[in-house]
Specification:
The complex is a heterodimer of chains A (396) and B (406).
Chain A lengths: L6 H17 L4 H4 L8 H15 L18 H13 L8 H14 L2 H13 L4 E4 L15 E5 L2 E8 L10 E7 L10 E7 L5 E5 L10 E11 L3 E2 L5 H10 L6 H20 L1 E2 L2 E2 L4 H31 L6 H21 L17 H12 L6 H12 L9
Parallel strand pairs in A: 1-4
Antiparallel strand pairs in A: 2-3, 3-7, 4-5, 5-8, 6-7, 9-10
Helix pairs in contact in A: 1-4, 4-8, 5-6, 5-7, 8-9, 8-10, 9-10, 10-11, 10-12
Chain B lengths: L6 H16 L3 H8 L4 H13 L21 H9 L6 H15 L2 H12 L5 E3 L16 E5 L2 E11 L7 E8 L36 E7 L5 E5 L10 E10 L4 E2 L5 H37 L1 E2 L2 E2 L4 H30 L4 H27 L10 H12 L5 H11 L3
Helix pairs in contact in B: 1-3, 1-4, 2-3, 4-7, 5-6, 5-7, 7-8, 7-9, 7-10, 8-9, 9-10, 9-11
Classes of the chains: A alpha+beta (396), B alpha+beta (406).
Keywords (chain B): FAD, Flavoprotein, Oxidoreductase
Pfam families (chain B): Acyl-CoA_dh_1 (PF00441), Acyl-CoA_dh_N (PF02771)
Protein name (chain B): Acyl-CoA dehydrogenase
Chain lengths: 396, 406
């Protein structure tokens, strides 16, 4: 048992800290707020990614020959930890950098690598991932969006939903049905779609957090070509799974955000008073904070235990589902409490928020984190069936 | 970074597991409950042969010189079979107490006795007022010339029926006078405890506590069994009536017992917590197995999400508890600055998680889980008995908060 970093890992950490110190966007350290509306917001984020790219910090886990740093697993975790620590702006092409680029490097054709990979890292082309549909949420293999071959083209019709960044994306990693004759996990194919074509329309979704990160995408005779297929026709499910395997540090970002939120919550409870007593000294509040201390530390340490296993086996295990469950559920609970502690002021939002809106914003966002990327209920099935070996749900 | 037990630590687990299984696993506790402690005695002897009682004894005194992190797999395994007896108190409290505070002679005699299995210790702490606070101790030790007179009634002594000796904290008179003042010298700066665990509890009531050790067969010692819903614990009431002891029976500095206790009790709580996660893992393994095989409505009940999700919820709590407990033991072993918060938060979390797991285990087994024949109840009873062992959840939470500076 050893919690220390090697000298190489410390160097990595210090290099990143120094770089962030010099390169966080001007004014970011003070307000930490993104421009409220597009196109300023998107431009801000594109600029940030470009800066990361120029500094060599856009895709740390990517192989060096593709412009990455070839970071080890633990270095990638350190990267996430530092980014959370300084509350760095989000990386706009996160889906491209985190999953699509590495997938193309792994199983893409030479032409696909040449055409796409570099622009993913530089942020010249923003990517989204077209998976969920109105009738295929938790049951992803139920997708109906279909692609039909006509000559040298594939004609795509259907609808995707909850697609992050689709409104600004240049390209989409799309899962579509190409054969309806067999079992539902068969007959799917992964395409790389040009979002800037007449048959593609995106509509932003107004989320309960008052943000517009998600979209619907409507495909009406949209076109893809043979060279846009990833893997083989009919192998889409396998490709989709390959893509998920590149989430090799799992919920690193969330787990570090939890620690930061916990520390902020304690700090917050020291500034609030009730009947002249600081909330941190109120026995009822204190009990709750101790519980959050144990659970947030527990989530972090559990993440480290699973990470140790990943480092030893070389691939992320199904235990990632446990980390996701622990983090997302605890986050919702804890952020809700931070709002609740504000008493009568708790519903105040945006400019009128009691302190600032970040507790309210964080709480409202947290309700999506137990749904996105596999709902809590699906994750529990995964743990039950794949970790504990309990009987599978009845599925059709 | 490597947050896992080492190969050597896992190997020790294997041998302990094998040893316990050879002796019948849970049957050791079952036969102990039925008034037959022979199987337990034999098991203890086997564990001694494996070197379990020498693991954390310094090399200078014939031990292996490792720390409590190396004992984690041992306690996980003893917890898994609800091992009765005094292994925990002996190894996780007496050994560190004597190794850190004992005289050279005590280390020589007592530690070698622990190592070879001849000596086992129980903690005679709680008095009839039920308080865990050493400040509430009423039992006394008075010096008269070279003789120390001990009078105390201690109750709910875990392993009291089995220990060969007792560790007894008592209120001691001021060594520098023969009067009856209870005020110890608050300026004796011998404390090695620079941790933040004292947390505002140091007032006059805590002065003048001294740790004694007393042989079970010493004149004036009476041990009476207590009935408990957890009959695996060997609970006893121990009366020390005009017991006369020599200086050799005083551990550490006269009047300095509080700090010694605050230090070593963390080792003990870390060990208790390790037992809890071992027991919890057993409980969850068995309920998982049951859910795979028990058929109702034409299918294994583990297919129903009401059942499987409940098992997963408890499993997640086990994962969390295990992480906290491993870390707490590491923090104690390495003297990490967050060790007090780590130990007490692990203890309170593991305690409540164990109770929930043991309780759900009964529920998910249905009617059969409510029977004496099934082991389910033994785990629930152990969970409840350990819940308030040398502190309550509320105490542990307060200690955590205080260590965090709240």
């Amino acid at each position: 048992m050893d919690f220390s970093l090697t000298s190489a890992e410390r160097e990595f950490q210090h290099a990143l800290r120094d770089w962030l110190e010099q390169n966080l966007p001007a004014g970011w350290k003070g307000s930490r707020s993104l421009p409220k509306t597009d196109p300023e917001r998107t431009q801000f984020l594109r600029d940030w990614q470009r800066r990361l790219y120029d500094g060599g910090w856009a895709g740390v886990a990517w192989p060096k020959e593709y412009g990455g740093r070839g970071a080890t697993l633990l270095e990638e975790v350190i990267y996430q930890e530092e980014m959370v620590r300084v509350k760095a702006p989000p990386v706009i092409n996160i889906i491209g950098i985190g999953m699509i680029g590495p997938t193309l490097i792994q199983i893409g054709t030479e032409a696909q690598k040449r055409r796409y990979v570099h622009k993913i890292l530089s942020g010249e082309e923003i990517w989204c991932q077209g998976y969920s549909e109105p009738g295929a949420g938790s049951d992803l293999a139920a997708i109906q969006t279909h692609a039909v071959k006509q000559g040298d083209k594939w004609i795509i019709n259907g609808q995707k939903v909850w697609t992050s960044y689709a409104h600004i994306a240049d390209r989409c990693f799309l899962l579509a049905r190409t054969d309806r004759s067999g079992a539902k996990h068969d007959g799917m194919t992964a395409f790389l779609i040009d979002m800037h074509q007449p048959g593609v329309e995106t509509r932003p979704i107004h989320q309960m957090s008052d943000h517009y990160d998600f979209n619907e995408i409507f495909f009406t005779d949209a076109v893809a070509y043979e060279e846009d297929i990833v893997g083989e026709v009919g192998e889409g499910w396998k490709v989709a799974v390959t893509l998920l395997m590149h989430e090799r540090v799992g919920v690193a970002r969330q787990v570090f955000s939890l620690q930061r939120d916990f520390n902020d919550l304690v700090g917050f409870s020291k500034t609030l008073t009730r009947q002249g007593v600081r909330l941190v000294e109120n026995p009822v509040v204190k009990k709750r904070l101790v519980d959050y201390y144990a659970r947030s530390r527990g989530a972090l340490l559990t993440y480290y235990r699973h990470l140790t296993q990943t480092m030893k086996t070389g691939h992320p295990g199904v235990e990632g589902s446990m980390d996701k469950l622990l983090c997302s559920e605890l986050g919702k609970d804890m952020l809700g409490y931070a709002v609740s502690l504000q008493g009568a002021h708790s519903p105040l939002w945006h400019e009128d928020a009691y302190v600032n809106s970040s507790w309210q914003d964080g709480y409202l966002e947290s309700l999506g984190l137990t749904i996105a990327g596999g709902t809590t209920e699906i994750q529990k099935n995964v743990v039950a069936e794949r970790v504990l070996g309990l009987p599978k749900d009845i599925k059709h | 970074m490597d947050f896992s037990l080492s190969k050597e630590q896992e190997m020790l687990r294997q041998s302990v597991q094998k040893c316990l299984q050879n002796q019948g696993g849970i049957e050791i506790a079952r036969s102990y409950m039925d008034g037959e402690p022979q199987r337990l005695k034999k098991t203890y002897g086997e564990l001694v042969q494996l070197g379990v009682t020498s693991v954390n004894i310094p090399e200078a005194y014939g031990g292996v010189g490792l720390s409590n992190i190396d004992l984690v797999p041992v306690f996980e395994e003893t917890g898994r079979v609800l091992l009765p007896g005094t292994l925990r108190e002996t190894v996780a409290f007496a050994t560190p107490l004597i190794a850190r505070y004992g005289s050279a002679e005590q280390k020589e005699e007592l530690l070698s006795g622990i190592a070879n299995g001849q000596m086992t210790f129980a903690l005679a702490v709680v008095e009839t007022n039920g308080s865990y606070q050493l400040g509430d101790i009423e039992g006394t030790a008075r010096r008269q010339g070279d003789v120390i007179h001990l009078d105390a009634v201690k109750t709910v002594v875990h392993g009291g029926m089995d220990a060969t000796a007792f560790l007894v904290p008592v209120r001691s008179d001021d060594a520098s006078s023969d009067g009856d003042s209870l005020n110890g010298d608050s300026s004796n700066g011998d404390s090695s405890n620079d941790d933040s665990s004292k947390g505002g509890s140091s007032n006059g009531d805590h002065e003048g506590i001294t740790w004694l050790w007393v042989e079970r067969d010493h004149d004036g010692v009476t041990v009476e069994p207590l009935q408990s819903f957890d009959a695996t614990l060997g609970l006893a009431k121990v009366t020390f009536s005009s017991v006369q002891l020599d200086e050799q029976h005083v551990i550490g500095k006269w009047g300095n017992g509080l700090e010694m206790c605050e230090d070593c009790v963390q080792d003990l709580h870390a060990a208790v917590s390790a037992e809890m996660i071992g027991a919890m893992e057993h409980v969850l393994d068995s309920v998982t197995e049951y859910a795979k095989t028990r058929v109702q409505f034409g299918q294994p009940i583990g297919r129903f999400q009401a059942v499987k999700h409940r098992i997963v919820d408890r499993r997640l709590e086990l994962e969390t508890a295990k992480s906290l407990v491993y870390y707490a033991n590491w923090a104690v072993a390495s003297g990490s600055s967050d060790k007090t918060a780590a130990v007490y938060s692990a203890r309170s979390y593991a305690t409540e998680a164990f109770i929930r797991a043991a309780s759900d285990n009964i529920q998910l087994h249905g009617g059969i889980g409510f029977t004496w024949e099934m082991d389910c109840h033994l785990y629930l009873k152990r969970a409840r008995a350990l819940e308030n062992y040398l502190g309550s959840v509320q105490d542990f939470e307060e200690q955590t908060a205080s260590a965090l500076g709240w």
